[in-house]
Amino acid sequence: MYPVDLHMHTVASTHAYSNLHDYIAQAKQKHIKLFAITDHGPDMADAPHYWHFVNMRIWPRVVDGVGILRGIEANIKNTQGEIDCTGPMLTSLDLILAGFHEPVFAPQDRATNTEAMITTIASGNVHIISHPGNPKYPIDIQAVARAAAEHRVALEINNSSFIHSRKGSEANCRAVAAAVKEAGGYVALGSDSHTAFTLGDFSECRKVLDDVDFPQDRILNVTPRRMLDFLESRGMAPIAEFAEF
Q1: What is the span of the domain harbouring residue 167?
Q2: pLDDT per residue as tens digits for the range 146-204
Q3: Lower CB density within 10 Å: C or N end of the chain?
Q4: 158, 131 in Cβ contact below 8 A?
């Protein structure tokens, strides 16, 4: 449905099962023009070492017409807005997602979860908040959506949350989409693929967006250029290999 996927994991996160070549092959088959590899930040037990992220500079930018963004799904660590993406990692990556994961930040009460998410949004280091509709982490959705719109951070609608992980997310995700619409912010869609076969699957996300009549012009996945313009507006230098995207 959309030619951009912004959230997936490779065998570098060892609970996932595909490699970069697998994703490229699926992208060509499914007409995905741009995708981001976002393996877990190093504070997760099975995550790659920070060298993995710094060394993404050796990846080609485009393979057989498919663009590859160098990314991470970092972990929100505390209420001070810290994530496990620091130093050289920050300047080596194109795209930084951050979200709650139980091994790093155990679920807290609504006020604490909200504070941690908003301070992370305000830090300036994050482009997308991953799976904010996770029911294990109650938040003040309207407050988070307002902060995200103010700081030009997208909130993710995560397709895997409806199918494999974070069951019970549907009502929260619908509330997130409605709140982002009202606040004037952006949503990002992520398949959260742990195998390449689900790359580009936004079928459940689309139902949520349709339910709230979410405007197409504030969905980052609609075109590669929209996503790249968003990143450039957040300070990423234009990437010559993506000039025709």
Answers
A1: 4-242
A2: 999 999 999 999 988 787 777 778 899 999 999 999 999 999 999 999 999 999 999 99
A3: N
A4: yes
From the CB of residue 215, how many other CB atoms can be counted at a distance below 10 Å?
A: 12
DSSP count for the chain of H helices, then E strands:
8, 8
Tokens of 208: 């949520």
Q: Which of 131, 122, 121 is nearest to 99 (CA)?
A: 131
Number of domains in the chain: 1
Which residue is it, tokens 């995560």?
158
Question: Can you give the CATH number for the domain in which 41 is found?
Answer: 3.20.20.140
**Strand 154-158, strand 62-63: pairing:** unpaired
CA distances from 209 to 25, 42, 88, 99, 197 (A): 28, 32, 36, 21, 23
